[in-house]
Amino acid sequence: MALNSSIEWTEATWNPVTGCTHISAGCAHCYAERFALRLQAAGMPKYRNGFEVTTHEKELLTPQSWRKPHTVFLCSMGDLFHDSVPSEFIRRVFGVMKVCRQHRFQVLTKRSVRLKQLAPILPWPDNVWMGVTVEDARNVHRIADLVATPAKVKFLSVEPLIGDVGRLPLKGIDWVIVGGESGPGARPMKKEWVLSIKQQCEKAGAAFYFKQWGGTRKHLHGRELDGREYSEMPVVADRSPALDLG
Fold this sequence. Notes:
Layout: E1 2-3, E2 12-14, E3 17-18, H1 31-41, E4 54-55, E5 71-74, H2 87-99, E6 104-109, H3 112-118, E7 128-133, H4 142-147, E8 153-158, E9 175-179, H5 191-204, E10 207-212, E11 224-225, E12 228-229
Parallel strand pairs: 2-5, 5-6, 6-7, 7-8, 8-9, 9-10
Antiparallel strand pairs: 1-2, 3-4, 11-12
């Protein structure tokens, strides 16, 4: 677990699962893979397997030790719904989130088909936000799988935005995060793609969060869009008051 996360739209990260495999074009320059291999080379026991999918039993106890409420991004270093993660382990992770109602958990996956398959057997407390990654038009189909789940808050991570996503089916979607790719080999993001998504969010009533322009040196480009920052969050009642992460 890491508090004071550098990810702009959350406060902390929790990784009961680490590791993943590439599934679509957005995975080409995976930051988590680079970081995991670095931690493996540094001798970090948790990353002894590098970026191979690994479950961490002891991590299931971690959120229960945090007394102060946090907004927590789940599996920033992997994908909870990877085929190599046993369904029973996924159920236990959801059980922990149900018990830890003081926290708000943000779960993100590219494996929407498995998400939809397992959704009926998972507990869905109000403090679990469920999201899918949609990096280009070829992966818009993931949204329908997300909407089919009972999650109270549903969100999209349109990051890294590597192509025009076209018309997004935003009915049932509460929040959309948009960001360009960053780090070595970062692919460019066009402003018109971002503006189109912003306009669609406004029309659909979905909160719009613009994370970054990205690039190989993302700090040089910032996160302003037409002279202002967009840090909207969905309006929810799972914790009161809602956190302002802007």
